[in-house]
Amino acid sequence: MKIFREPSKLQKWARSRSKTGAKIALVPTMGYLHEGHLSLIAEAKKRKADEIIVSVFVNPVQFGPNEDFAKYPRDEKADLAKCRAAGATAVFFPTSENMYLKDHSVYIDEELLSKGLCGARRPGHFRGVCTVVAKLFNLAHPDFAVFGMKDYQQAQVIKRMVRDLNFDLDIVVAPIVREKSGLAMSSRNTYLSDEERVRALALSRLLKSVEAGKSVKTEKARITKALEKEGLKVDYVEFVDGETLEDVKKTAKGVCVLLAVYNGKTRLIDNRVI
Question: What is the DSSP string of 68-126?
Answer without folding.
Answer: STTTS---HHHHHHHHHHHT-SEEE---HHHHS-TT--------STTSSHHHHHSTTHH
